[in-house]
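TA notes, week 10

Several of you asked for a full example with nothing omitted. So below is the full record: structure tokens for the whole chain, then the designed sequence directly under it. When grading your own attempts, check the secondary structure regions first.
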């Protein structure tokens, strides 16, 4: 029942909060800085409707949620004699968030962020299903708005639109709504069957160093910031 009411108990990638906008008359958000992360990714199309269960199941099977993990694992185990090398699936811990983004007009991607221990491609078990790929996510800084409720695409897009309008108001003038809607991501922290009222949803809009600096130094920004002089 824990997952149904929103309690996941899974690890999240580390991040630094650089800035918070939490004034009562604003659309709240925070600016986060993430280091490099690695993710398992599956692709799906808009023709699937809003059913995201197929990519979720593909990725869940890769990490071993539904039984034997669908990945390759080769681990050398030192013994007195001989040295035994076994090829067997490797279970991978579930982490959050699950990230969804638009690849093009009809194609979307879903990412499972891998645990911090998998900090290089060489350490990550290879998927046995060709529909799952592993990729590196470079260090990023962006604006995040957190909310509960539906994870439907239209609701995510509406939140992203409100977020970009607040960012523009706070000093990020060069960020257009079209740019934001092309690049925003939905981050989900709960299984699909979690009740909407208990869900932790987030929308993420990537920003560059100049945009973050304009938020901190501009008169529109309200909140606190640390470490914004170097976000690389």
């Amino acid at each position: 029942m824990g997952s149904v009411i929103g309690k996941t108990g899974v690890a999240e990638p580390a991040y630094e909060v650089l800035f918070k906008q939490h004034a009562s008359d604003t659309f709240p958000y925070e600016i986060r800085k993430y280091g490099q992360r690695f993710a398992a990714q599956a692709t799906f199309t808009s023709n699937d409707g809003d059913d995201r269960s197929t990519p979720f199941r593909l990725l869940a099977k890769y990490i071993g949620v539904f039984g034997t993990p669908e990945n390759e694992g080769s681990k050398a185990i030192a013994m007195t004699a001989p040295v035994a090398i076994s090829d067997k699936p490797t279970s991978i811990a579930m982490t959050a968030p699950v990230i969804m983004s638009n690849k093009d007009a009809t194609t979307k991607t879903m990412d499972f962020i891998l645990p911090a221990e998998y900090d290089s491609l060489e350490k990550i078990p290879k998927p046995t299903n060709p529909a799952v790929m592993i990729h590196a996510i470079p260090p990023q800084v962006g604006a995040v708005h957190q909310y509960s409720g539906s994870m439907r695409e239209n609701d995510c897009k509406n939140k992203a639109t409100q977020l970009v309008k607040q960012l523009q108001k706070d000093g990020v003038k060069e960020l257009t709504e079209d740019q934001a809607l092309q690049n925003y991501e939905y981050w989900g922290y709960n299984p699909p069957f979690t009740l909407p009222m208990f869900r932790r949803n987030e929308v993420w809009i990537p920003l560059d160093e100049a945009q973050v600096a304009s938020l901190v130094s501009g008169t529109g920004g309200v909140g606190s910031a640390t470490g914004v002089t170097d976000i690389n």
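Helices lie at 53-63, 153-169, 177-183, 209-217. Use that as a sanity check on your answer.
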